[in-house]
Structure prediction request, 122 residues.
Amino acid sequence: MVKLDHLTIRVRDLEASRGWYVGHLGMKLEFEVPDRRTVALQDDAGLTLFLDETAGEVAAEGVVLTFQVADVEDTHRRLAGAGVPFVCPPEKRFWGYGAELRDPDGHLVLLWDEVSMREKSG
Prediction:
């Protein structure tokens, strides 16, 4: 068996990115490595997302992070109400039903939920 355990993305501002993933998506701080400007955030399923601050260019193009949420419509309302801009609100997309937004560094973030995907993507 193969199990994806962690993923690393480069970010320009570690504090801003950590705040975005923790505050908006509810990820939990697992640990941090201050001298390397790196934090490890964990989702509810145990996948660790490392945020690694870099002084160089952040290559967000081609990176897509997909998060399953309890209710994509609710999550969209909550985040949009907090001023988080969306690329598109929850709607039928080529990949199914969900919403798309970008993190502070431009990484594409997809949000979906099991019920909406099953009932609205067909």
